[in-house]
Amino acid sequence: MDNRLLPLTAYGLKAMSMGFLVPQDAPIAWRGLMVQKAMNQLMFEVNWPKLDLLILDLPPGTGDVQLTITQSLQLAGAIIVSTPQELALRDAVRGIDLFKKVNVPILGMIQNMSTFTCTNCGHDHDIFGLDGARKKCEQLGVKLLGDIPLHPRICHDADAGKPTVVADPNGPQARAFTKIFSDLASELSLA
Asked: pLDDT in tens for each of the 191 residues of the chain?
């Protein structure tokens, strides 16, 4: 009998997270070895079906989690996600440098929470700065994969357990996600 964990399935996607395995209000305050053990469980002790693509959502930084993954899996590449402000971009650059040092290709960067369009007045507001990730990509020679707007609908949809691309497939935020995935699928020969 297979005692491996089963991933959760929704909208045709398989997912596994430490958040699924611990009580909702329980803190996960682990040191390096516990984090490494958890990462190994998520990668190798889950009964993953044949997958077209496995996406690992990692915390920012260049620590044990990132190193464990680069040493345990053959990665097609890394995608760096950052908000436009300089402080967040510093961590993003560290991540890029780490993955380059361990010979993981950088597929590109996504600028998250790029622009907020006021639902009352319709004006755009660059709360976290304007085009910080775009400028950093140009500076580093990294492809900008796209911009995800800061939009309350994304938060609402996530809290409701429904991806934005399903809840409002023609909305601007869904189009942003779809374009990024389409470009990546093409680059990774998945399309």
From this structure: 677 889 999 999 999 998 888 898 988 888 878 888 888 889 899 999 998 888 888 877 777 788 888 888 889 999 999 999 999 999 999 999 999 999 999 999 999 998 888 888 888 888 888 889 999 999 999 999 999 998 888 999 999 999 999 999 999 899 999 999 998 988 888 86
Q: How far apart are the C-alpha atoms of 99 and 76, rounded to whole Å?
A: 11
Q: Are 63 and 32 in contact (CB under 8 A)?
A: yes
- DSSP secondary structure of 125-141: E-TT-SSHHHHHHHHHT
HEC profile of 83-116? CCCHHHHHHHHHHHHHHHHCCCCEEEEEEEEEEE
Extract the tokens encoding 14: 């398989």
Which residues, 6 or more positions from 119, have their beta carbon under 8 angstroms from its beta carbon? 152
Q: What is the H or E stretch that residue 149 is in?
A: strand 144-150
**Exposed, middle or buried: residue 49 (CB in 10 Å: 0-12, 13-18, 19+)?**
exposed
Can you list the domains of the chain with their CATH numbers? 77-187 (3.40.50.300)
Residue whose pair of structure tokens reads 């942003």 in the numeric block: 176
What is the C-alpha R_g of the chain? 18
